[in-house]
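Example 3.2
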Amino acid sequence: MGIARAAAAVASGSRELQQHRRDSLRLMVVLIILTLITSPLLEAQDTLQLASNLHPTDLGVLRAVKNAMTDLPGGTFFSSWDFSATGIDPCQMFAGVVCINIQGYSRVTLLSLGPEEAGLPGLTGTLPPELGYLPFLTQLSISPGAVSGPIPRSLGRLRNLNLFSCSQNLLTGSIPQSLAGLQKLQVLQLSNNKLAGAIPSGIGSWPSLEFLVLSDNRLTGAIPMFSSSNNSTSTPPRAALNHLDLRNNELTGELMSDNLPSSLEFLSLTNNQFTGSIAAVGNLTKLKYLDLSFNQFSGEIPSSLFGFVGLSYLLLNRNQLSGPVIVKAEVTIKVVDLSFNLLVGSVSPFLAGAQILYLNNNLFMGTIPQVSFSCLLIACLFACFLLDPFHCFQIYYPYALDLCSITTFLANLALP
């Protein structure tokens, strides 16, 4: 009996030991689970201590920006972006960051990366894809510098963005098609980069677009179709695209009336490879600046251009424009440049209303109108070039009248 009781006691002790071990193991598992659960909470608490009320997602994006970009030598923009300090609110202390309060959190609504003053060193690095995860961002601008790499496709997620500017940097690749989703964008400025490929067709459908500058890149293809605010039946009505600058690219194709909205006030397509007629610009009556120079346009110049009330610059030089120049009333355009074309016929007396007039290197023949010659003599024109800058008939008001190479001049254009 004693042996049996002892054996039973040993067995009972063994079971209790096993149960104790199982309980200890369960406790360890529970502690591990609690540690895994509470650690992020503790980290979040530390994060909120650092970032005040800034939403964790927005804070993560700012960290990604700091990791992907840095100051050029001599720059100090990121010196205020200190994530190691405690009690600092990025919305208040970080340069270029502006926030608004939404549902109890501070959300980043504006990012202006780089120095505001011209001439200071900008930034280098790349645009991180995390930038596309700032749902309340309305403005994203990067100062001139050496920011390189592609434009992240994720930027197409920024449905509230109304301004994106990253000019005079080293961006490469194409303009992402995903940007077509930025229906609130008013300003897109990406000039002086190394962007290539076609302009996304969806850009032309942006209902709020007013200012588009893609100059000095390597863009190819045709101009997308820009719907005119005057022809729109949308509610609310479309904004008016008034500034389109595509100069110094490798764009091709012809100008169609459907491609250019009648709201345009500034249009520069100089130094591309466009061909065909320029008749489409004859309907852009709000133009103040028109530069189609250094292309391969052909055909006649629409006579309506010379009558645009607010037009100050009409630059059509270095094309293959032909036919007579028909002007129906005295022009009030400050600068008219029709040089280096194939224009024929006589010189209209109404062109004397321009302050600076270039007609050289064309095929004009006949008699100089008495009105035009009189204007030259009394300095109505600031400068007039009828042949070329080295063998010309010109005047610089108010200093001197220069009748250079008058023999050559008279041989081509006879005075009345």
